[in-house]
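Issue: ligand-bound run for AHM - logging full I/O for the record.

Environment: standard queue, default settings, no custom constraints.

Inputs:
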Amino acid sequence: KVDESINTDIITLPRFIIESQKQHPKAKGDFSLVLNALQFAFKFISQTIRKAELVNLIGLTGDINSTGDQQKKLDVLGDEIFINAMKSSSIVKILVSEEQENLIYFDENEPKYAICCDPIDGSSNLDAGVSVGTIVSIFRLLPNSDGSTTDVLRCGKEMVGACYAMYGSSTHLMLCMGDEIDGFTLDNNLGEFILTYPNLKIPSHNLIYSINEGNSYYWDDSIVTFVQKLKTPDQETGGKPFSSRYIGSMVADMHRTFLYGGLFAYPSDRKNPNGKLRLLYEAFPMAFLVEHAGGKAVNDQGVRILDLQAEHIHDKSSIWIGSADDVDKYLKHIGKL
Ligand code: AHM
Ligand code: MG
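Outputs:
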């Protein structure tokens, strides 16, 4: 007897890409080559992280990366996996990686796409088995460009796509190719990402704030007052205070925010005058995804993240991101709404 509980008509990522391509008859299939390389990198990194403890990969290499952090072996491996996957895409010309000081240029590839990525974001959490992820922004090269930093030192709104993979209890992929955002879950037996959250919308509000409050000593008074306000029940919050949730891994904190709603922030402070998170491969892709899911993302001054432009590939930005109503609360607080 056939087990009727098994769905035999699932939408895998390759099927999803083919079907979306049909809706854009002018598409030449270039973007699918990029996605194919990306999903391979995500699967490879996912497997590597899951095996890490067993094959004794945990530990420091002793090197310092371009933004001054100590690199771990998994950071190096994740970076290598990512670079090789983009190289083999045939179509990604340049790559900005958090782990590489300079832009990587692939001589052999066609000059079509530029990718910016944090191969393993939240890596300080790795040894504790906490969820980490890979964050990616995708730009099409400027007309007639052969690939250079000017292709990525642009406004975030010029991106053509963004995604992140989160290596948690399952491996999830959240993807936006310019329209909606769609979520996939990796089926390890099939080796395929399966569509599990079609056309995901972020809730317009939730009583959750996610911020490293240990930094409050270094914050401006305005931020201290705002966070205090979130913890003080009022009529707007239905008489309840916001709850605090902070994993310390942006992908995991944002994944929860996409599904449950609320507000995630990493403001600037006296230690990090421009915030901590990087514009090209942390703030931009998350802002792109959140806006396509109906949310908002702004910096400390209330400027839309996607209107910002990086001057250097590793530039940082403050960020307030999440449910539209909760970001609006911050905007009202600073008098920008
Ligand atoms: P990383 O790219 O070096 O891993 O740093 C980025 C991470 C984010 O994932 C996370 O939101 C943030 O750093 C946490 O920082 P902190 O430990 O200062 O709260
Ligand atoms: Mg990182």
